[in-house]
Amino acid sequence: MKVLHIEGGAHLYGGAQQVLYLLEGLAARGIENHLACRPGCALGVRAESFAVVHGMPMHGDLDVLMIGRLYRLIRRVQPELVHLHSRIGADLMGGLAARLAGVAVLHTRRVDNPEPRWLVALKYRLHDRVIAISEGIARVLRSEGLPEAKLRVVRSAVVAERFAQPCRPGLIGERLGLPEEALVLGVVAQLIARKGHAVLLRALPALLAEQPRLRVVFFGQGPLADVLTQQIDAAGLNGRVHLVGFRDDLAELLPCLALLVHPALMEGLGVSLLQAAAAGVPIVASRVGGIPEAVEDGVTGLLVPPGEAAALAQAMRALLTDPARRERFGQAGAERVRRVFSVNEMVEGNLRVYHELLAEAAR
């Protein structure tokens, strides 16, 4: 089987990391992968062992010339199906290109952002199947009119073993410049509005006053970096809240966190939640989108209403003051990730959809 994958993201996290897991798993099963992505992007560099990489310009949702570029690539590669992995123009332009080339096409939907029903009716007509990475996203798609016959759910995954390691003493101080005795609360998310960093900043002042050892670390990058820096400064939280950017050593740092907080206002599933759980870290997160599938409330973490700073503060306080409960949640989360969110199951789930589509085409 030959599959052309299309991913327009520039950075190797979130959806692009899931594509890399999928490519590796498919290659191990004898699938011939081709990947269209931005020239020189991190995904393309890492994927060269598992796919033939085709770098091409991808300028976003309005890049209509992408249709021609992808059509010519499809005609040259002659895949049996095309798998669209991101929006950023690929969902629409890639769908049109595949339709023009007469090739079966599926799209993986990773976000729960609502779309107008008219757009859903037009755009998803291009796709033979739509894979939602959570039941939360599937509910959104159903509510917007996507036919059930087109919809499949294949959850995102994480390589649990990579994060299931003990925290090396002194690592936080060495890598992030924090006091060795610090109680570290982490947020792992792009610095964009829907991830809810501003909600957390409203919840922190009282908590930081109660917990002198507490330090808060924002992992990630994004357009709100300067805004968040200004908000931290205005709230007098300098020295207690730190922006540390995108980290290649996240797998080593996560096990050193006392708590992972994810105050997102919208979220498809939350791969960072799976990573933290695999590392044995308890979680406080918003009850929104696919998050309740990643965090079992009262078992692996605590869920709160989105946007409610007081509820967020109360949940963080409850766990920060109860080390035994944090440990219990962390152990339960690590076991659940290994059981429910394995890369093997994610790869097999996608393969089932591939075989289903190819059987339809043969008929």
From TrEMBL:
One GO-annotated biological process of the protein: carbohydrate derivative metabolic process
Name of a matching Pfam family: Glyco_transf_4
UniProt entry keywords in alphabetical sequence: Transferase
One example GO MF annotation: glycosyltransferase activity
Gene3D superfamilies: Glycogen Phosphorylase B
Keyword Cell division in record: no
InterPro entries for the chain: Glyco_trans_1 (IPR001296), Glyco_trans_4-like_N (IPR028098)
Domain of life where this protein originates: Bacteria
The keyword Transferase appears for this protein: yes
Stretches assigned to the Glycosyl transferase family domain: 175-335
Segments passing through the bilayer: none
SUPFAM superfamilies reported for this sequence: UDP-Glycosyltransferase/glycogen phosphorylase (SSF53756)
Segments forming domain Glycosyltransferase subfamily 4-like N-terminal: 14-161
Name the UniProt record assigns to this protein: Glycosyl transferase
Lineage: Bacteria, Pseudomonadati, Pseudomonadota, Gammaproteobacteria, Chromatiales
